[in-house]
Amino acid sequence: MDRPVTLTLAIGALSPIGFLMLKDAINILLLANDSDFGLSFADEEVANGQRFSVVTTIPAMIKAHSKLGYPAVYPCGAFVYRKKLGSVFGSLFGAEFSARKGDQTDRISVGMDSPNSAFGGTNSIFVTGYDAKKAADGAHDGNAEDDTAQTSHGRITGRRANKWGAVNYGFAFYEA
């Protein structure tokens, strides 16, 4: 076989892998705190990809005040996890948060998966009152789309904005 034919065959065989290596996969989570508890980032499980942005604390909700005329304020934190450059795998993570109000404590975790496959894969979000690993495992392979979990002092609700695509937008709300 001459070189041009061999080179063409090699490029043709590697192009699906090259496509996956160049294709992006991002998880973007917006976590809103609708509680009297302050949230602190406690732990993470990054199964695939890498962390780009994490907020370490989200203060408690500020309740509406009718005499002063201001509405309720729901503090939020944005979290971004992205696949590693040149990797064929997407982005899969679980993040755990500690909630504290006086001597009361609670735990919440959110997991998100933005797979990186030739067919796009199914984005997912999974919430739980347990650890970061359980959240990542629950989100793996598109097993969860919209989810609610009870915790010891409240509940966490997660919503996935889009089923397919390279960017998985998720919204989570903690209520206590």
From TrEMBL:
This is Uncharacterized protein.
